[in-house]
Amino acid sequence: MAEEKEIKLNKIKEECKNCYKCELGKTRKNIVFSDGNPNAKILLIGEAPGADEDATGTPFVGRAGKLLTKLIEECGFSRKDDFYICNTVKCRPPENRVPTDEEKSLCENYLLEQIKTVNPKVIVLCGATSAKSFLGNKIKISEIRGKWYKLFDNIDTTVIFHPSYLLRNHSELEGSPRWLTKQDIYKIKEISEQ
Ligand code: URA
Hints:
Blueprint: H1 2-17, H2 24-27, E1 35-36, E2 42-46, H3 51-56, H4 63-74, H5 79-82, E3 83-87, H6 101-118, E4 122-126, H7 128-135, H8 141-144, E5 148-151, E6 155-160, H9 163-167, H10 177-193
The structure holds uracil.
Protein backbone atom coordinates (compact mmCIF):
# COMPACT_ATOMS: atom_id res chain seq x y z
CA MET A 1 0.00 0.00 0.00
CA ALA A 2 2.75 2.43 1.03
CA GLU A 3 4.65 1.44 -2.10
CA GLU A 4 1.56 1.93 -4.26
CA LYS A 5 1.20 5.43 -2.83
CA GLU A 6 4.81 6.29 -3.63
CA ILE A 7 4.35 5.08 -7.21
CA LYS A 8 1.17 7.11 -7.65
CA LEU A 9 2.68 10.25 -6.10
CA ASN A 10 5.81 9.94 -8.24
CA LYS A 11 3.62 9.70 -11.31
CA ILE A 12 1.77 12.92 -10.37
CA LYS A 13 5.12 14.59 -9.65
CA GLU A 14 6.42 13.65 -13.10
CA GLU A 15 3.27 15.15 -14.66
CA CYS A 16 3.92 18.39 -12.74
CA LYS A 17 7.53 18.48 -13.96
CA ASN A 18 6.21 18.42 -17.52
CA CYS A 19 3.41 20.92 -16.88
CA TYR A 20 3.35 24.28 -18.66
CA LYS A 21 -0.41 24.86 -18.46
CA CYS A 22 0.04 28.30 -16.90
CA GLU A 23 2.65 31.05 -17.05
CA LEU A 24 4.28 29.94 -13.78
CA GLY A 25 5.78 27.00 -15.64
CA LYS A 26 7.91 29.41 -17.66
CA THR A 27 9.59 31.12 -14.73
CA ARG A 28 9.99 28.33 -12.18
CA LYS A 29 13.38 26.85 -11.36
CA ASN A 30 11.85 23.73 -9.83
CA ILE A 31 8.40 22.40 -9.24
CA VAL A 32 7.66 22.22 -5.51
CA PHE A 33 5.68 19.05 -5.06
CA SER A 34 5.68 18.00 -1.42
CA ASP A 35 7.60 17.32 1.74
CA GLY A 36 7.06 14.98 4.65
CA ASN A 37 5.44 11.62 4.94
CA PRO A 38 2.92 10.34 2.35
CA ASN A 39 1.57 8.03 5.07
CA ALA A 40 1.04 10.86 7.56
CA LYS A 41 -2.41 11.44 9.02
CA ILE A 42 -2.17 15.18 8.41
CA LEU A 43 -1.95 16.88 5.04
CA LEU A 44 -1.12 20.59 5.15
CA ILE A 45 -1.77 22.86 2.16
CA GLY A 46 0.06 26.19 1.97
CA GLU A 47 -0.23 28.98 -0.59
CA ALA A 48 2.60 28.79 -3.10
CA PRO A 49 6.36 28.30 -3.23
CA GLY A 50 8.59 31.30 -2.54
CA ALA A 51 12.20 31.88 -3.64
CA ASP A 52 13.75 29.34 -1.25
CA GLU A 53 11.21 26.69 -2.19
CA ASP A 54 11.68 27.38 -5.93
CA ALA A 55 15.45 27.01 -5.48
CA THR A 56 15.24 23.74 -3.51
CA GLY A 57 12.04 22.12 -4.80
CA THR A 58 10.79 21.67 -1.20
CA PRO A 59 7.81 23.47 0.38
CA PHE A 60 8.12 25.65 3.47
CA VAL A 61 11.90 25.82 3.80
CA GLY A 62 12.28 29.63 3.95
CA ARG A 63 11.67 31.90 6.95
CA ALA A 64 7.94 31.17 7.07
CA GLY A 65 8.59 27.45 6.73
CA LYS A 66 11.11 27.50 9.56
CA LEU A 67 8.56 29.18 11.81
CA LEU A 68 5.89 26.65 10.80
CA THR A 69 8.30 23.81 11.61
CA LYS A 70 9.18 25.37 14.99
CA LEU A 71 5.52 25.77 15.94
CA ILE A 72 4.49 22.25 14.97
CA GLU A 73 7.50 20.78 16.75
CA GLU A 74 6.81 22.83 19.89
CA CYS A 75 3.36 21.21 19.89
CA GLY A 76 4.87 17.72 19.94
CA PHE A 77 4.80 16.85 16.25
CA SER A 78 7.57 15.77 13.92
CA ARG A 79 7.30 17.68 10.63
CA LYS A 80 9.00 14.86 8.74
CA ASP A 81 6.88 12.00 10.12
CA ASP A 82 3.53 13.53 11.04
CA PHE A 83 2.84 15.83 8.07
CA TYR A 84 2.55 15.64 4.32
CA ILE A 85 3.05 19.21 3.08
CA CYS A 86 2.12 20.75 -0.25
CA ASN A 87 0.73 23.97 -1.75
CA THR A 88 -2.21 25.19 -3.84
CA VAL A 89 0.18 25.64 -6.81
CA LYS A 90 3.42 23.78 -7.58
CA CYS A 91 5.36 26.68 -9.09
CA ARG A 92 6.52 29.99 -7.66
CA PRO A 93 4.49 33.06 -8.66
CA PRO A 94 6.91 35.86 -9.67
CA GLU A 95 7.63 38.40 -6.90
CA ASN A 96 5.82 36.07 -4.49
CA ARG A 97 2.45 37.40 -5.56
CA VAL A 98 -0.67 35.45 -4.63
CA PRO A 99 -1.49 32.80 -7.27
CA THR A 100 -4.47 33.75 -9.43
CA ASP A 101 -7.72 31.77 -9.41
CA GLU A 102 -6.84 30.58 -12.91
CA GLU A 103 -3.39 29.35 -11.85
CA LYS A 104 -4.90 27.60 -8.86
CA SER A 105 -7.58 25.94 -10.94
CA LEU A 106 -5.11 24.78 -13.62
CA CYS A 107 -3.03 23.21 -10.84
CA GLU A 108 -5.97 21.90 -8.85
CA ASN A 109 -6.09 18.43 -10.31
CA TYR A 110 -2.56 17.68 -9.17
CA LEU A 111 -3.47 18.72 -5.63
CA LEU A 112 -6.72 16.75 -5.66
CA GLU A 113 -4.82 13.67 -6.83
CA GLN A 114 -2.28 14.15 -4.03
CA ILE A 115 -5.06 14.41 -1.45
CA LYS A 116 -6.82 11.34 -2.82
CA THR A 117 -3.59 9.33 -2.81
CA VAL A 118 -2.37 10.37 0.64
CA ASN A 119 -5.92 9.99 2.00
CA PRO A 120 -5.22 11.91 5.23
CA LYS A 121 -7.31 11.90 8.38
CA VAL A 122 -6.98 15.67 8.73
CA ILE A 123 -6.46 18.47 6.19
CA VAL A 124 -4.93 21.74 7.38
CA LEU A 125 -5.54 24.77 5.17
CA CYS A 126 -2.64 27.08 5.96
CA GLY A 127 -3.46 30.72 5.26
CA ALA A 128 -6.17 32.58 3.37
CA THR A 129 -5.20 31.52 -0.16
CA SER A 130 -5.39 27.86 0.72
CA ALA A 131 -8.61 28.30 2.72
CA LYS A 132 -10.25 30.24 -0.15
CA SER A 133 -9.46 27.42 -2.57
CA PHE A 134 -11.61 25.03 -0.59
CA LEU A 135 -14.04 27.16 1.39
CA GLY A 136 -14.80 29.96 -1.06
CA ASN A 137 -13.36 33.38 -1.86
CA LYS A 138 -15.53 35.19 0.67
CA ILE A 139 -13.96 33.72 3.81
CA LYS A 140 -12.07 35.85 6.32
CA ILE A 141 -9.15 33.99 7.83
CA SER A 142 -9.51 35.67 11.24
CA GLU A 143 -13.11 34.47 11.40
CA ILE A 144 -12.58 30.86 10.34
CA ARG A 145 -9.21 29.84 11.76
CA GLY A 146 -9.65 27.17 14.37
CA LYS A 147 -13.02 26.11 12.95
CA TRP A 148 -13.54 22.60 11.62
CA TYR A 149 -15.14 21.51 8.36
CA LYS A 150 -15.67 18.29 6.46
CA LEU A 151 -14.15 18.08 2.98
CA PHE A 152 -14.25 15.34 0.37
CA ASP A 153 -15.21 11.99 1.86
CA ASN A 154 -15.70 13.30 5.37
CA ILE A 155 -12.12 14.45 5.97
CA ASP A 156 -11.78 16.67 9.07
CA THR A 157 -10.43 19.98 7.83
CA THR A 158 -9.31 23.09 9.65
CA VAL A 159 -7.71 26.45 8.95
CA ILE A 160 -4.63 28.02 10.56
CA PHE A 161 -2.92 31.38 10.09
CA HIS A 162 -0.15 31.42 7.51
CA PRO A 163 3.33 31.56 9.12
CA SER A 164 4.22 34.66 7.00
CA TYR A 165 1.50 36.48 8.93
CA LEU A 166 2.96 35.15 12.19
CA LEU A 167 6.42 36.42 11.16
CA ARG A 168 4.94 39.91 11.29
CA ASN A 169 3.25 39.23 14.66
CA HIS A 170 5.83 38.28 17.24
CA SER A 171 3.79 38.21 20.42
CA GLU A 172 3.24 34.82 22.00
CA LEU A 173 0.93 36.19 24.68
CA GLU A 174 -2.41 34.52 25.28
CA GLY A 175 -4.83 35.56 22.54
CA SER A 176 -2.09 36.56 20.06
CA PRO A 177 -2.04 35.02 16.55
CA ARG A 178 0.95 32.82 17.48
CA TRP A 179 -0.74 31.66 20.67
CA LEU A 180 -3.99 30.94 18.77
CA THR A 181 -2.05 28.98 16.15
CA LYS A 182 -0.50 26.79 18.83
CA GLN A 183 -3.95 26.10 20.27
CA ASP A 184 -5.07 25.18 16.74
CA ILE A 185 -2.10 22.81 16.33
CA TYR A 186 -2.83 21.12 19.68
CA LYS A 187 -6.41 20.56 18.49
CA ILE A 188 -5.11 19.14 15.19
CA LYS A 189 -2.98 16.74 17.23
CA GLU A 190 -5.97 15.65 19.29
CA ILE A 191 -8.21 15.09 16.27
CA SER A 192 -5.51 13.30 14.27
CA GLU A 193 -4.92 10.88 17.15
CA GLN A 194 -8.60 10.00 17.66
N1 URA B 1 4.62 29.79 1.80
C1 URA B 1 3.76 28.85 1.36
O1 URA B 1 2.55 29.04 1.42
N2 URA B 1 4.26 27.72 0.90
C2 URA B 1 5.55 27.47 0.84
O2 URA B 1 5.92 26.39 0.39
C3 URA B 1 6.43 28.46 1.29
C4 URA B 1 5.95 29.61 1.78
